[in-house]
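input
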Amino acid sequence: MKKLLSIIFFLGCISVNAQRVQHPYAARINRILERLPAGNQEQLDSCMMQIGSLGAAGLTEMALMLHAPGKGDNTRLQLALSGYAAYISTASREEMRKTAMLAWSKALTVTKQAENKIFLIDQLQLFGDKRVVPVLKQYLLQPRFCDPAVRVLIHIGGSEPLIAMEAALEKVQSDTCEICLIKALGDLRYLAAESAIIKRTQSDNPVLRRTALFALANIVGGDSGPVLEAAAEKAGYGYDITGATAAYLLYVANLGHQWPTTPAMTAATNLLKRCKGDSLEHVRIAALKIVADVLDYDATNTLMIAADSKDHKYSAAALVFAARIMNAANAEAWIQKAERVDAGKRAAIIAMLANSKQRAAISLFTKALKDNDPQVRMAAIQAAGQLQSIEMLSPLLVAMKTADTSTAKAIGDVLLTIRSSEVPGHIAVAMQHAPSFMQVILLQVLAQKQAVGQERLIRLLLNSPDPAVVQAAKSTLSAIGL
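output
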């Protein structure tokens, strides 16, 4: 019995000693975790400094304390590790970051649970640099870890991550990893990967093909254009599961940002010629936008021709693009065009000029108030409101006399938007000899503008034979406190 007890005691001592050897920082780590979450910044800083004092070995042990899923609560431990990762991310903590990268690299090698590996890899986005690239290379070939590893490499930036991802693309055997790597290399516009990505455009996996096409559209390499154009043409410039047409449009748009711009203009113009029919309307609009973006202020003539199209959406898009590149010279060209087109397009041009705040078009708007077409007249009224032009005040009041009720109310609403001390006086004078319905509307405008200085002219309407006008005058006086 004594021998047996001695053996048990001896084994117990060995076990305790082994635990101390394996987990020398456990007590310190647990004391830190008990203080989290911190109550204030001072306590948080203290906890972070204590974590930092653990050194590489202690940080590794802390990372390895993460429980397997379903085996324990990792909340405080993850809070501590992620908090520390954020804490050392500032430029002044270079040595702490270097130590943490050593610890994280060791922990990633040792830990077996996939969820914990992913957690640790994710934290490297906060403080990792090119020194962790060798550690992450192996994960680029593993479907479970490729995505988080790629996110870290994108965040690190520079040539080392790009070379690592390109090398992985040559070795990878998983579609999941291929898609992840190709998307990253495309987003980063890595030209050296162009040929490898072109090969993937022939894949049987439509998701992989789609990813490859959009990556090429972002890279804008010299060999990508024919590949993307062929894919879009094969899809009939319509929709297909690989998004070939959208990828080609993106490629042409990106091409327009390079010099010379002739290739982009040629490609966009060809799209305008080839894509006929209602089903390809959106493609024509996208191509027209590319032309407008490339030519900028010089796109006016092209947009004017497009505005004449019988395709209403295409015509409307041309006016939207025109508003974005509007200047004084272009405005004058559009003003002249408005005189030559039908009522519908004239109204649309007026709205476009107003949206782009072209005060040079006030004469056009004033003239349009007398147009025979109600759509044009309403466009002119709304234009006056958008420009808040005092110059259009008198023409608006004149137009109001012969307007129908709905148009008169629209003018009244516009008068409310014009901010000028002259407005109440003009209104008060104009309403004296105006039709009754106009007087009521103008009195309401004066009430909302608190036109105290027009009391005398308002009181004159108390003698009106129309009861509605009298009541409106009383309401107006009451509203302005008289």
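quick obs: Residues 366 and 395 are 6 Å apart (CA to CA).
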